[in-house]
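Lecture 7 notes: from sequence to structure.

We start with a single chain of 233 residues. Read the sequence below before looking at the structure.
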Amino acid sequence: MYKIYSTLFLEQDVDTYNCYVDETLWKRITNELMANRVLIRINGSTKFWICSLGQPIYTSFNSTNHLYVPSWMLNQIDTAGLGEELEVEWFPSDIFDCSTKITLQPHLSCAHIENIQDILSNELTKLAILQKNTTIEVVLEDTDIPIKFDVIALEPASIVLCEGDEVELEFLESFDSILQKPTLQPNESFPSILPLPSAPLEETTPPPVVVGGVKREERCNPWRNKDFKPNTS
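Now the structure, written as tokens:
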């Protein structure tokens, strides 16, 4: 068990793509695994998060059982990062397949950013690992504002490694574009007098769905989608 803290508690500047431990623990883990890149799985109460281990940090106190995690990652497992004790697993990055296709849905439109695919490929390589049905935060070049992306689909697996290789990146329409309300064009206007309908329209409702002779209200069931797999440990 490790005590989980937000990186906001660190005095030194660190990036938002990795988790961090002190030098003593860092040396022990890297020597045991003998890997170019070490990944960490943090097990929350109902969800888990996998991230890359960053360079060792230096603290003025004994922190050999402390793990420092960016706040946006902690949000994925509903953890505040105030010293909660959680189970942590360490393993080499090469146990995962490299990504071949990534489908993302940005929360804000990126259409105005030139070379967005090249920029994003570089940032995802820093992040190292992607998990389906999660939300990531990426800070693009020349800006300090993070942009959120929902990870919609991955190939060839639901958890993939990003190594900077040629990867097909697909973008769905951003949330702000979907929520944007349509507006009238300059040459469009409402008629001054609206014609009255010749007869009142009758309200119709679809008949209830009958299953096994019992009438039920039709509703959406996400569990019918075989690809829908909640992030659980």
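The chain has four helices and 14 strands. Keep this in mind for problem set 3.
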